[in-house]
Write a structure and sequence with these properties.
The chain is mostly beta strands. It has four domains: about 5-65, no CATH class; about 80-380, Transglutaminase-like (Coagulation Factor XIII, Chain A, domain 2); about 395-505, Immunoglobulin-like; about 510-605, Immunoglobulins (Immunoglobulin-like). The protein is built from ten helices and 36 strands. The strands form eleven sheets. It has a six-stranded antiparallel beta sheet with strand order 17-16-15-12-20-21, sandwiched between helices. The protein has a five-stranded mixed beta sheet with strand order 30-36-35-32-33, with no helix packed on it. It has a four-stranded mixed beta sheet with strand order 14-13-18-19, with no helix packed on it. The longest helix has 14 residues, at about 195-210. The protein is globular. The model has no long low-confidence stretch (mean pLDDT about 95).
């Protein structure tokens, strides 16, 4: 491009700003749809009919990114506070647990840490995305959702939900994206292992690094619809036992939202788009998901790209219970219309509080608008008639629940409450099971079960209770320490059938992280992590992980076994490299306890 007197909008252009003592200062502007990536700046000068060309070196390299501060850019976001959070903030949270017992852990996105930009650009190069598409946020975000997982084209992270993490690191041990991306860059192979919040954390880092506003979002009671019916089907046999039907409900699932215009769609579908790097189902033959307009999900417009049917089912499918009778005939028992998609969570702008996004994805449960959206979506599924309601004569009310805030090491106490609203006695056969679960809704180990016949007097109440001690359940738990209580009941007098559940997370203790709250750039300080073993067993395979953007590179600290009730402290020296508000994050893993985290905020001047 020639160096002119003034810059031209909407295209590559250059203009001379000043010239003095053999030096020229030139301004350059790029078009809003410029290809994202590295550019080499080469200067040609002409003098006395001769042309001189500068050499191409790394010192003359510039990187063009998306620019959400520019109105003409696809990622333009007219809100400084949100730009500060969704582009510039290197610290955030990942929410996990269950909708009634929400947990959160700090996450180091670290998009401005050394080498992170290099690995993000390498991902685009490796993806083989067309050059002309690298200025399109829709296509870039879709390709990033593919490249963050290793299912196709040698992406960043290998998923593992087996509970066996030999040859890699447990997903609960990661504190952030930086160590993962650097390891991928240095070893040039996928990193082991990730689960949904890890995929989402890395995706947030990559998108923010490329200039696309992004956030991690947790959906509780997240459906995985395997047959595109837009319903989640649960089956039980005549003995009141569950039958696997293929569909599942994850206790939580973490994906991303990215902010962009959607010029490929009718007006009204721009803004936040769901994108998901966790490899669940293929889309166009590869493991990717999105971008899917949140407004399309809310209104049931599941025919719009990309993957809107799948995302809609995750947040607003109806949960349908079926009784499998003899000869495999099905009897529809009931439909739970508010069971899926609850407490959708992300970090609030400018604070460490939780911000609820549920109303962005769906209208209030049970409202006319919400039911219209569901009917619209289901009409585009493979079972359009499944939605029709079933009317049953039910006069016994059931409720199953566990005690609130049960910590690992405490007893689990469960109650099935029953209320007879009729003027006749009711004989009820009950069956309760307790299972340790993977957070994806897959059973891990049976903890116990019980059956009991109960007679409820007219207009009376009865309950069935069961209790499990740590000795009975501790060896059964897996990563997230989630327990599912499933209660099934049959009213002999009326043939009423009930199926209900309570999924809960056994809570873990916190780490206590202490450090000087005020630090000076370049001066060494000491941080301390304290942990007390709350269990009656010795913890082995103990590891602490600590990191903080601008303070400390990710580091693993192995520790000797920790006895019951023992308190241990580990210290780490660090030297601040950047000024501003920073966060030190730590996590703890062992053979019996995981998902133990802590953090402390500091200010570097």
């Amino acid at each position: 491009m020639p160096v002119g007197k003034s810059l031209e909008d909407g295209k590559f252009s250059a203009a001379l700003e000043s010239s003095e003592g053999g030096y020229a200062k030139v301004k350059i502007t790029t078009p809003p749809d410029a290809i994202v990536g590295k550019y080499h700046v080469v200067i040609e000068t002409m003098s006395d009919g001769k042309t001189f060309r500068s050499r191409k070196t790394d010192d003359n390299t510039v990187v063009v990114l998306f620019n959400p501060w520019v109105k003409e850019d696809m990622t333009y976001l007219d809100d400084d506070a949100q730009l500060g959070e969704y582009v510039l903030n290197e610290h955030g949270y990942q929410y996990y647990g269950t909708s009634l017992r929400i947990g959160k852990r700090p996450w180091n996105f670290g998009q401005f840490e050394p080498k992170i930009l290099d690995v993000c650009l390498r991902l685009l190069d490796r993806s083989k995305i067309k050059a002309e598409s690298r200025g399109d946020a829709v296509k870039v975000s879709r390709i990033v959702s593919k490249m963050v997982n290793s299912a196709d084209d040698g992406g960043v992270l290998t998923g593992n939900w087996s509970g066996n993490y030999a040859g890699g690191r447990s997903p609960t041990a990661w504190n952030g994206s930086v160590e993962i991306l650097r390891q991928y860059y240095e070893r040039n192979r996928p990193v082991c292992y990730g689960q949904c919040w890890v995929f989402s954390g890395v995706m947030t880092t990559v998108l923010r690094c490329l200039g696309i506003p992004a956030r991690s979002v947790t959906n509780y009671d997240s459906a995985h619809d395997t047959d595109v019916s837009m319903t989640i089907d649960n089956y039980m046999d005549h003995n009141l036992r569950e039958i696997d039907g293929g569909d599942s409900v994850w206790n939580f699932h973490v994906w991303n939202e990215a902010w962009m215009a959607r010029p490929d769609l009718p007006e009204g579908y721009g803004g936040w788009q769901a994108v998901d790097a966790t490899p669940q189902e293929t889309s166009d033959g590869v493991y990717c998901c999105g971008p899917c307009p949140i407004s399309a999900v809310k209104n049931g417009h599941v025919y719009l790209p990309y993957d809107t049917k799948f995302v809609f089912a995750e947040v607003n499918a109806d949960k349908v219970y079926w009784l499998v009778r003899q000869h495999k005939n099905l009897r529809k028992l009931r439909t739970r219309k508010a069971a899926i998609g609850n407490k959708m969570s992300t970090k609030a702008v400018g604070s460490n509080a939780r911000h609820d996004l549920t109303e962005n994805y769906k209208y209030p449960e049970g409202s006319d608008q919400e039911r219209v959206a569901v009917r619209t979506a289901v009409s585009h599924g493979l079972k359009p008639n499944t939605y029709d309601d079933v009317i049953e004569d039910e006069d016994v009310e059931f409720d199953v629940h566990a005690d609130d805030e049960i910590y690992i090491g405490q007893n689990i106490h469960v109650t099935l409450s029953m209320k007879n609203t009729s003027s006749e006695p009711r004989k009820v056969t009950t069956h309760l099971t307790a299972r340790a679960m993977y957070y994806t809704g897959v059973p891990a180990h049976d903890i116990g079960e019980m059956e009991k016949d109960v007679t409820i007097p007219p207009n009376g109440e009865e309950s069935v209770e069961m209790t499990y001690t740590p000795r009975e359940y501790l060896d059964m738990l897996v990563d997230q320490a989630i327990v599912k209580i499933h209660a099934m009941a049959h009213v002999d007098d009326t043939n009423q059938v009930y199926s209900g559940q309570d999924d809960f997370r056994l809570m873990s203790p916190d780490l206590t992280v202490t450090a000087p709250t005020k630090m000076t750039l370049g001066e060494q300080v000491t941080a301390e992590i304290e942990f007390t073993n709350p269990l009656d067993v010795t913890l082995s395979m103990v590891e602490f992980h600590i990191e903080g953007p601008g303070l400390q590179k990710p580091k693993k600290i192995s520790h000797t076994p920790i006895k019951p009730g023992e308190t241990v402290k580990v210290t780490e020296r660090m030297t601040p490299r950047k000024v501003g508000k920073k966060t030190i994050m730590a996590s703890f893993t062992s053979n019996k306890l995981t998902q133990v985290t802590g953090e402390v905020d500091v200010v570097v001047s």
